[in-house]
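Memo to structure team: turn this sequence into structure tokens by end of day. - J.P.
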Amino acid sequence: MLKSEFQACRQRNMQFHNFHAAVQTPVERTCASAPRAHLFGNYRPPAPTFVRGERSVLYDARGKDYVDLVAGIATCGLGHCHPKLVAALTAQASALWHVSNLYDTQPASLLAARLCETSFADRVFFCNSGTEANEAAIKLVRRFHHDRGTPRAEILVCEGGFHGRTLGALSATAQPKYHLGFAPLVPGFRVLPYGDIEALRANLSERTAALLIEPIQGEGGVIVPPEGFLREARVLCDRVGALLVLDEVQTGMGRTGTLWAHQQEGVTPDVLTSAKALGGGFPIGAVLAREEVAASFVPGSHGSTFGGNPLATSVAKAALDVLLDDGVLAAVPALTRKLHLALAEALPAGLVTQVRGRGLLIGLEVSQPAGLLAARALEAGVLVNALGERVLRLAPALTLNDSELAEAASRLKYAFRA
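Reply from structure team:
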């Protein structure tokens, strides 16, 4: 049953692959042999080149299939080409693409309303990525304090955090490897150990504009803070009048088992940033905030030409509806248990020394080089993500089904048999 389901998916791809190969232009054939000949070299040499995706299965230009346990780094939360997202994008593409933020569009208003209905927020600002969302949040908290006549510039961030690659967001990213060659960075960020409440207590003061933090560090190695850390951070921020800004770019949209990771801690932020799975793979970012804080972005204070465009907001609204209304979010705990059991059976004893994370954001600390293991998995037809030297990150689609999971486990068992 499970195998036949996977084979049916494979057969549909071969039909697509054969047709596509027959109608390729000379330029397409050239790009197939040297796909990065005209691109910047800031990404590692990629292999393979993907041309199609369905649910949690990707297909390369040769027709080979891969079970995707990365989901665009926690971005394609509903898998590849979810039919309801495709329908929303197709319908909107036939109606209206872009008019700029000089005018209102219905898709943006509907998405903003749904986000506010399902979160702490009163207002939403739309942009195009997680980096842009964090950049906007940095500006927002400084403007907030400026508007109160008591300017504060200092923003506390944590070691191992990752908030993006534009200069402001990069300055908030306390990982020196990302800073090389980009100095001078934007001043005003103080770095603390992640999860260290005593360090937070010692450094939060009336100079502090905000604490910017991930509820779980993704790029930092899938690190979960100690129990109660976020709750105490909320108390300490209130004590000195600082804002609590949660970067939920990776942990949001159901990834950890609730719509937002902070909801499991009983904490309410002042500002939240979202992107990645918000658009189900289509580029969009958002800043959610309380009314009092959002009021500091007055006309002319910040903007984004393409932010909130009808295509992105239509797809994001469909993604949010599927997540909440089609039972996807409710099924995450059960899928998490299945995935952990499958991994325990597939991976050889001694390979995994620690399992971290929450829900479908999983970090496996391994005893062998993570890059080598990820390469072996890729050869076997499974996508996993190496973080540093000893961590494999798994962030599969929330719609991963039994046949895809069984196939992934079988292939991983083969890949790591030695």
